[in-house]
Amino acid sequence: MNALNLPPILMQQQANACRDQWVQAMQASPSATDWVANAAALVQFDSSAIAVLLSCRREALALGQTFQVQHMPPKLQELATLYGVMALLSA
Description:
By secondary structure, the protein is α/β, with parallel strands linked by helices. It has helices at 12-27, 47-62, 74-82, 86-89; strands at 2-5, 9-10, 34-38, 44-45, 66-70. A three-stranded parallel β-sheet has the order 1-3-5, with helices on one face. Strands 2-4 form a two-stranded parallel sheet.
């Protein structure tokens, strides 16, 4: 299992850089099979966080890997549920 740690702040301003960094890490580890995004540190975010997570999930699947998010703050869980993507992000 390979871990990706969400930053404390993930707003629109940080989204592209965070996504690019994670996608590069995934592409640099083709032998990896499982990716886990740890959202424990996340305290300030907007819907861009969901977009980043979904983008990383798509990349993992394209590489034949799995992707899930753990330790989601309640507000992020609510947002993922609202957008109908909670099942895609949770284990």
